[in-house]
Amino acid sequence: MQTITRLAMLRNAVADLRDGGKTVALVPTMGALHEGHLTLVREAREKADHVVASIFVNPRQFGPKEDFGAYPRQLARDQALLEEEGVALLWAPERDEVYPEGYATNVSVTGISDRLCGADRPGHFDGVATVVLKLFNEVMPDMAFFGEKDWQQLAVIRRMARDLDLTRPHVDAIHGVAIVREADGLAMSSRNAYLSPEQREAAANLPRAIGSAVAALTGADRAAPALESLRGELLAGGFDSVDYAELRHGHTLSLLDRAETNARLFVAARIGGTRLIDNWPVER
Ligand SMILES: Nc1ncnc2c1ncn2[C@@H]1O[C@H](COP(=O)(O)OP(=O)(O)OP(=O)(O)O)[C@@H](O)[C@H]1O
Ligand SMILES: CC(C)(CO)[C@@H](O)C(=O)[O-]
Ligand code: BAL
């Protein structure tokens, strides 16, 4: 696996991969890789001839009081994991290569970016859309892979691809990969590493409480009582606060007051300084 840090070299390296009409898949990440990321890579390998992974802790998607500085960085370990998974090329640019002096462009997907995580993290999805569009333009992949753990992020990226007429990767080639979970149900996340052993144990209450809420929401006339008990269960189960616990349409992300086709439960909650997110489909 080649690691490339300069844009000038990336273009030639990707052109070499494409030689003979081979297809290229992109798996964007912020590093500190776990089985969730590796599952994205494996699905990408099944669908494309070559996989390009990227690692870039994107400053533009972190708020001023967020964990940009503390975000885990472990490039050597990540390189070994990606190599083992058969990734052809790792794009790992420095900050100045992505945002050189004078950089002034912002990509904003309005509407769906403003709710859920976008309401708690103002500007977050502008940062995501901006960097993802740059990654798409840099690598020009035939397809790209994102995790459903970050469901709203996937919706924002698909909206952007549709609105900006992206041809590479076009909207149908933006693949969502099901959430990979720990044995106790907690969605894997690089941020789980921030949890103390006691907090990690309490974190398992998130998927547990979501499971009960999904059962209560199915067939219920009103979503509100189940969402209220979900909040209560999290606060009683070691969480310090609940940023949101909402039933929304999975495609439009509009609020629902009862389950319908494509309904989805979205939750973000904090233990100490660590913010965890999860989402689950809800049947009618
Ligand atoms: N448990 C998971 N299951 C499926 N996909 C995942 C999972 N965790 C992360 N991903 C996906 O991997 C890609 C890179 O995510 P990222 O590097 O931000 O990791 P992360 O674990 O989500 O980190 P964090 O949430 O702490 O920022 C994203 O598309 C994300 O949705
Ligand atoms: C898509 C992404 C790599 C953009 O920085 C990031 O938001 C992530 O890791 O989910
Ligand atoms: N996994 C999404 C990236 C972020 O939380 O900043």
Automatic annotation (TrEMBL):
Keyword Cytoplasm: yes
Keyword Cell membrane: no
Cell compartment(s), UniProt: Cytoplasm
Gene3D superfamilies linked to this entry: HUPs, Pantoate-beta-alanine ligase, C-terminal domain
Positions contributing to (R)-pantoate binding: Q61, Q153
Residues that hold beta-alanine according to the record: Q61
GO molecular function, one term: pantoate-beta-alanine ligase activity
Any one Gene Ontology cellular component term annotated for this protein: cytosol
Location (main, coarse): cytoplasm
Reaction(s) catalysed (UniProt annotation): (R)-pantoate + beta-alanine + ATP = (R)-pantothenate + AMP + diphosphate + H(+)
Pathway named in the protein's UniProt entry: Cofactor biosynthesis; (R)-pantothenate biosynthesis; (R)-pantothenate from (R)-pantoate and beta-alanine: step 1/1
Keywords assigned: ATP-binding, Cytoplasm, Ligase, Nucleotide-binding, Pantothenate biosynthesis
Biological processes annotated in GO: pantothenate biosynthetic process
Broad enzyme group: ligase
Binding, ATP: 30-37, 147-150, 180, 188-191
Summary of the function given for this chain in its UniProt record: Catalyzes the condensation of pantoate with beta-alanine in an ATP-dependent reaction via a pantoyl-adenylate intermediate.
HAMAP family on file: PanC
Other known facts: The reaction proceeds by a bi uni uni bi ping pong mechanism.
Quaternary assembly: Homodimer.
Protein name, entry field: Pantothenate synthetase
